[in-house]
Amino acid sequence: MQTIFALATARGKSGVAVLRISGPQAHEVARRLCGDLPGPGRFALRVLRDAAGELLDEALILRFDAPRSFTGEDTVELQTHGSIAIIRAVETAIAATGLARLAEPGEFTRRALLNGNLDLAQVEGLSDLIAAETESQRKQAQSLFSGAMRAFVEETRRDLLRAAALIEATIDFADEEVPVDVSPEVGVLIARVIAAIDAQLAGFAGADKLRTGFEVAIVGPPNAGKSTLLNRIAGREIAITSEIAGTTRDILEVRVDLHGLPVTFLDMAGLRESEDRLEQMGVARARQRAVEADLRILLQDGTAMADPFVAEFAVDLTYRTKADLTGEGVSGLTGQGVDRILDDVAGLLAERVTGIAVASHERHRQAMLSARASLSQAQGACDAGEGAEIIAYHLRDGLAALDSLIGRVDVEAVLGEIFAQFCIGK
């Protein structure tokens, strides 16, 4: 492989910047900039100079020898001052050696995968960890990155390998008398794996929502206080508020960290019949998003909505608004009752992420569905007393589907999509 380099920290002015070099010429590239390197796994302060001997910066040099590095290759990290000019000068000096090229997005992590330092699920976990916005997302991503999926695959794989060994034995000794009927034990092993997969599939919806975020639609008639509530939740003026009914036409969104959960609140057009074509379009969009949302808050100020609107979707929480005028209910203007609304929303959403699965990506779900289908066929064949070859065939398919979760089989088709989400330097 070619030696690659990239800025591993965010581009822009900062206190410290980290430039990573990885590959067979990593140590030589670093030596040309700073002279002697520290020992393997050690660090030292060195002066960086370009090929002409011009001073670039004073940097902390960290050396990692293969395979004990993130990528599994020889790696050097240069911790420089975070000046934009310094970063540009050091990158230019590295490229001028002719021994390294700029890394592509996710290429360091891809090399870690190819060198066996990470499995495919851990790569996805790392991507989720980088993108995590809330504590719950961090914990979920950390679990995947730490190898929770591998542990699941290894546990279920042991049962399937045992079942396959028993079945294969009956094939190998088909011409001899087998004293023990292996079908009962094989059936138990398959059933146990199917139950484990079912538990993962049951928790997938909550895990997927925790990773991507929940949507909460604020619905109600015009002038019920929806935009005022959104502004209060956001802590700033997101939506225009007015005593004129029908002010909101487009859907406005505010993403917040709600008790560790990623939640996007949606403010939309008031639900009512209207002759105004633009308002009709806004109401149509509002109705559609309300149906698609994970949770709906209905705000009422005494104005009734038309029955067809209410019947289109289930209302999860209902509140009487404009407490600043009546003294009762909630008020986005003064903040009265808003904390209660947020607590209620968090409580309902927390129930939906109880018992979430390790499987949190659609790829995981599809692989598990494929594995379950194959194992169900194996179980049916076993129960029906069909030939051992048929049972063994379905078991092998089930094993391959589970192995694809961590990249043990050919998954080249999904690698491009996964690594496209990474930034350069990771």
Structure commentary:
With 426 residues, the chain is an alpha/beta fold. The protein has 3 domains: 3-114, Probable tRNA modification gtpase trme, domain 1 (Gyrase A, domain 2), CATH 3.30.1360; 127-203 and 359-407, tRNA modification GTPase MnmE domain 2 (Four Helix Bundle (Hemerythrin (Met), subunit A), Up-down Bundle); 211-352, Rossmann fold. Helix content is 47%, strand content 17%. The protein has 16 helices and 11 strands. The chain has helices at residues 26-34, 84-96, 107-114, 120-131, 135-145, 148-172, 183-202, 204-212, 226-234, 277-292, 307-311, 323-326, 338-352, 362-383, 388-403, 412-419; strands at residues 3-7, 14-22, 43-49, 55-64, 75-82, 100-102, 214-219, 252-258, 261-267, 295-300, 317-320. The strands form 2 sheets. The protein has a 6-stranded mixed β-sheet with strand order 3-4-5-2-1-6. Strands 8-9-7-10-11 form a 5-stranded mixed β-sheet, sandwiched between helices. α6 runs antiparallel to α15. The longest helix is centred in the middle third of the chain and has 25 residues, at 148-172. The model has no long low-confidence stretch (mean pLDDT 85).
